[in-house]
Amino acid sequence: MKIRLFVALFLLALIIDPCHAGAVKVRESNTESHRTEAAEQDGDEAVKYSNDVFRELVERYATADGNVDYQAWKDTPDDLAALNRQVDLLALVSPGSHAEQFNGPAAVRSYWINTYNTLVLQAVLEYWPLESVRDVRISFSSRVIPGKGFFYDRKVVVGGVESNLYQLEKEVLKSQKDPRLHFALNCASSSCPVLRPWQWTEEQLDLAARDFVNDSDNVDVREDTVYLSRIFKWYRKDFPEDTYGYLQQFAEAGLSNRLQAARDGKYSTKYFDYDWGLNDSDSH
């Protein structure tokens, strides 16, 4: 019944708002135009990609568990400007537009993870104060489809190409073909993986995977049922068919044994509710 209602609301929204940019806007993005202009002005041969600014800002405002002090960040104009300059840089430079700046697959992977996380942070701060990314209203249809405004309607520019957060995530996952990215990409919500100021080496990806898998809010075995984060449901095709076996390589001994019992006993799978509350340090 809920699925039918959602589909009906979605179809109604498309009829009313076929271009996903209806006349009614609760809030107009104040960065879309300058990001597009930046992408059009890529005449500077000296432009050079670096994620140092992003990592320094995350170290300054994010806690060890990945929550962010958005209010303090919003109250610091210099750091807001620094983040916006980083976004302007991303609008100019990507592995697609400046391949010579990225020395190998690891550098490309680091770029895409940190770029997605940077753009999510900027979007939250643009609409701050905010209780959830699903509350952003841009088009008329985003009034009835939670999350559409934040992930679909709000435009981003990466390497001169306009996109949105949904499409960007989709392209990143498709190009990298590494399930561990699901433990690195952060959507500014409580059930998301931890936001980290990393370069995303192999070792760091493995550590992020272990931290995520060994958190009982993401993976747990109770009686004859395995409980998983909804990430494993939404992105099922990105993970091996033997999901329990895949999780075992990151699980600590006790959890690994219980996952083996689940494999042997063909336990059922259920999924935790996803907490879309903002990863705001003041609310945790």
Class by SSE composition = mainly alpha
Distance between the termini: 33 Å
C-alpha Rg (nearest Å): 20 Å
| Largest sheet geometry | 3 strands, mixed
Domain unit count: 2
What is the arithmetic mean of pLDDT? 89
Description:
The structure is a single chain. The chain is mainly alpha-helical and 284 residues long. The chain has 2 domains: 28-136 and 147-190, no CATH class; 214-275, no CATH class. The chain has helices at 2-16, 32-40, 52-61, 70-74, 77-92, 105-127, 148-153, 165-176, 202-213, 231-234, 243-248, 253-265; strands at residues 155-158, 161-164, 219-222, 225-228, 268-271. The protein has a 3-stranded mixed sheet. A two-stranded antiparallel ribbon has the order 1-2. β1 (155-158) and β2 form a beta hairpin. The relative contact order is 0.14. Mean pLDDT is 89; it is low at 1-42.
Give the tags.
single chain, 284 residues, mainly alpha, 2 domains, three-stranded mixed β-sheet, two-stranded antiparallel sheet, 5 strands, 46% helix, globular
Task: Give the helices and strands, then pairings.
Layout (H helix, E strand, L loop, with lengths): L1 H15 L15 H9 L11 H10 L8 H5 L2 H16 L12 H23 L20 H6 L1 E4 L2 E4 H12 L25 H12 L5 E4 L2 E4 L2 H4 L8 H6 L4 H13 L2 E4 L13
Parallel strand pairs: 4-5
Antiparallel strand pairs: 1-2, 3-4
Helix pairs in contact: 2-5, 5-6, 6-8
How would you summarize this macromolecular structure in one to three sentences?
With 284 residues, the chain is mainly alpha-helical.
